[in-house]
Amino acid sequence: MTAHAQLIRIALRILFALLILSPAGLAADASLKDDAFHYMRGGANDYLYTEWWYFNGISNNTQFLLTYFLTDPDNTLGQRTIMVRAVVADGGLKPVIATRSSKGFGADRNNPSVDLAQSTAEALDGSTYKVSGDAADEITGSSIRWDLTYRAALSPWYPMPTQNTIGHIVGDWMKWLVYMPSARVSGIVSIGNKTIDIDGIGYHDHIWGKWAFNDPTWIWAQVSVPEENFSLVLRDITGANRNIILGVQYAGEPSKFTSRQIKVSYDEFSLDPETARTYPSSYRIEADNGDLKLSAKVEVQKSVPLLMAYPWPMPSYVIFEQVSRFDGTIWTRGGETYSFDREGFSGCTTHRVHPIYGMVNSTAPGNITVKVTNQRTGQVKVSQPNSLGYFSLDGDYADYMENKTTSWVENKDILSLKAEGPLGETNSTEVIVNLTSHEQRAAI
Known about the structure:
By secondary structure, this protein is mainly beta. It contains two helices and 30 strands. The protein folds into two domains: 3-352, AttH-like fold, CATH 2.40.370; 356-443, Immunoglobulin-like (Sandwich), CATH 2.60.40.
């Protein structure tokens, strides 16, 4: 195929994508009602119900994300959570985290219209949303405000249209809708007395279902280039029910992959100093469905830990919200090539009970495995140190399901730590658990 023919083909694809994006709505495998409120009372385990609407944006040197979140809408167990959360990273300044909670909310089951914690998200039509709100900086208490308009650049994608099991509770399920894989976002974001004009790239998705919120662990990533009709969305649900979901839109045409057609390789991890937990900071996505082949690298640039605390001995939940660099290439069956190098968003979740973390003393820590054994229970946990030698080990939701009366460690437990090299060389130490500390450091 000549270069001229390739340009004509891409232009036709873009024209087709523009034709199906009309002011009245979007032609896709999802409707506005799919992005509305989904809770229906009277089912089993209503207290587990969770739903949120998520928006993000990049404008010049400002990145932000907004989450409209609720659990247990009928307050079945008296632990209902209704909250809006904003994270704003303005240039090189430390990201600001702002939250606001409320006791009541309003939501429409036929049209996306959410009113909670003095913040709203509403569909004006099938491709335009108005998103506004106000929350308080968790540290200073100053007001963080937003008044934004999202206009879809690509049609919706339904990664999980049916109920998918994701955790350890029998019958749990989750659905996931990416209503705006790529969007134009405009308006303002204010931090205290500073107002930032927003004119950039946005994204919006929506998750709902019944599961223990602090149970599943996953890695998530998203990037788009609206002017080139490109988007990439990934979710790697890890653990026993691992499921890798990937959707790519190139020149406006969607391309989906089965889990077997996707490989995610985690090359590097970083230790978060606030939570003493590690997260993937560099990974590669490889995928091939016969029509489209993808190779992309994700490098985390900023990482913000959000801690959802749970009463002992339940594991607390760490959500890492991240800004990342995406560098990749797409090849089509027709011989077309498309490369991208853009900023996007990523994130991951993990558990936090009583982390045991530290550093191994080795010139090649990436080839070492760290094992911790609880001398009282015999339980063993394993960690692979990162390139700098840092590691972190902790309990998880599976431990809680096995024994809901105690944690993976108890006070004064003796933990044996052993670092094992590829040639059988070892080094070891012991840690006596002190639960008055949030975490404990060990050197091997």
